[in-house]
Amino acid sequence: AQSVAQPEDQVNVAEGNPLTVKCTYSVSGNPYLFWYVQYPNRGLQFLLKYITGDNLVKGSYGFEAEFNKSQTSFHLKKPSALVSDSALYFCAVREPSNTGKLIFGQGTTLQVKP
Amino acid sequence: EPEVTQTPSHQVTQMGQEVILRCVPISNHLYFYWYRQILGQKVEFLVSFYNNEISEKSEIFDDQFSVERPDGSNFTLKIRSTKLEDSAMYFCASIARKGFEAFFGQGTRLTVV
Q: Which stretches of chain A score pLDDT less than 70?
């Protein structure tokens, strides 16, 4: 069965510092991997995805993520955090052969302090 | 930019009542989904819909739930007899084609009292 783990409930960083939000996955075959962000009382906004190709993918708002097949990880990164990046981040996985449903991790709250 | 829209944004209903949550997916999208998020918990898949039929449903999606796409634009989720534990944020999503990212609506917060 597919699963996604985000081992940290919360990540705290100072503004201007690099940030990493961790994600590991378990899926049969080659996965499609996604990151979404959720601001308070809002829907999920797509940040970036890995389908195939270069292991480093770049997305919205300066975020990037690195796909590591041997470690089954897809960590979200940003070189310099902004206070406005503070939100709830979800990693999600989809098997290529299935109906397109997403399996989400439990979410990581990112707190960026000035 | 095209977006998925959901109405209402907040619905309060009495236990045992029927509710219909409405969604207008992006117009050229082919795959449609409902997810829910109980407060403080992760987002859970409920059902996927393609070619006018359910393609997959989770164990949460029992006989109390149904989905319809009655007119080619709206996509609805009906809960026939709501329970307290149905209180959650419900998200609609759509995808243009497999391999593409899902676009989510802003959600409907359902409160069952």
A: none
Which residues of chain B from 38 to 67 reach within 8 Å of chain A, CB to CB? 41-45, 48, 50, 55-56
Region class of B55: left (phi > 0), else alpha (psi between -120 and 50), else beta: alpha
Residues of A at the B interface, defined by Cβ within 8 angstroms: 32, 34, 36, 42-46, 49, 51, 90, 92, 96, 98-107
What are the per-10-residue average pLDDT scores of chain B (113 residues)? 91 97 94 93 93 93 94 92 96 89 95 97
Please state, in angstroms and rounded to a whole number, the distance separating the CA atoms of residues B89 and B93: 13
B103 contacts in chain A (CB < 8 Å): 46
